[in-house]
């Protein structure tokens, strides 16, 4: 079995930015008003209702700096965002989780699910974040406590959130998150893309050659060979 951990890194990274922009620019709410013929809802103008903030100059904290985390970092840096990271397996990630939460205006999860990471963002961690933080998770729902996230959104500690995964791969329609206009929800669609089949044909020969050259060595590219 060939192990290709970076196969969908760019797709997930782009999805992360899509959720970030959708959440901070009020895309869903504005779209809904246009479709409902309520551009001037309650006698207001869109410019008043949908005031967002620019991400240039903000600090983004990435929890996990693997293939996806690095792809997100590259994209955010190009937009003028200061990027810090927490990852015990990457020397470029110099912040502890506590330090990251205290500094970041945007917190984005890109860690794998392990015994150490399940529930790593709970009520204590949300309380330690900056007021008005944006919270993103395009990894796995097991990394954060959903009830704690709901509480943080209700209190305003978390100003907006973007989630691409839920426990059991779905979310009940009566879940509190569904009724929150400052939350963007997508059903685990960060990885799929139209070029996947073409990319697989490119990855397989390269990964197989790496596997053959490794001669039993345990590397990130040949871990399951």
Automatic annotation (TrEMBL):
Q: Name one GO molecular function term.
A: NAD binding
Q: Which keywords accompany this UniProt record? A: Oxidoreductase
Looking at the record's lineage, which domain of life comes first? Bacteria
Please verify whether the record's keywords include Magnesium.
no
- InterPro entries (alphabetical): D-isomer_DH_CS (IPR029753), D-isomer_DH_NAD-bd (IPR006140), NAD(P)-bd_dom_sf (IPR036291)
Where the record annotates domain D-isomer specific 2-hydroxyacid dehydrogenase NAD-binding, the positions are 17-190
Q: Name one Pfam family in it.
A: 2-Hacid_dh_C
PANTHER family (alphabetical): FORMATE DEHYDROGENASE 1, HYDROXYPYRUVATE REDUCTASE
For this entry, the protein name equals D-isomer specific 2-hydroxyacid dehydrogenase, NAD binding domain protein
């Amino acid at each position: 079995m060939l192990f290709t951990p970076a196969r969908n890194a760019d797709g997930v990274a782009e999805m992360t930015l899509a959720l970030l922009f959708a959440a901070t620019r009020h895309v869903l709410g504005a779209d809904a008003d246009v479709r409902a013929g309520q551009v001037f809802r309650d006698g207001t103008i869109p410019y008043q209702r949908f005031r967002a903030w620019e991400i240039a100059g903000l600090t983004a904290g990435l929890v996990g700096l693997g293939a996806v985390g690095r792809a997100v970092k590259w994209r955010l840096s190009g937009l003028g965002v200061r990027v810090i990271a927490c990852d015990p397996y990457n020397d470029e990630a110099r912040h502890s989780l506590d330090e990251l939460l205290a500094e970041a205006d945007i917190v984005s999860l890109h860690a794998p699910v392990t015994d150490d990471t399940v529930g790593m963002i709970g009520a204590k961690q949300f309380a330690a974040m900056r007021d008005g933080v944006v919270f993103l998770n395009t990894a796995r729902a097991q990394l954060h406590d959903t009830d704690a996230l709901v509480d943080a959104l209700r209190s305003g500690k978390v100003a907006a959130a973007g989630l691409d995964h839920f426990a059991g791969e779905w979310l009940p329609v009566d879940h509190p998150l569904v009724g929150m206009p400052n939350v963007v929800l997508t059903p685990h669609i960060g990885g799929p893309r139209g070029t996947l089949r073409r990319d697989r044909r490119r990855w397989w020969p390269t990964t197989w050659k790496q596997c053959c050259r490794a001669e039993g060595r345990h590397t990130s590219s040949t871990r399951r060979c």
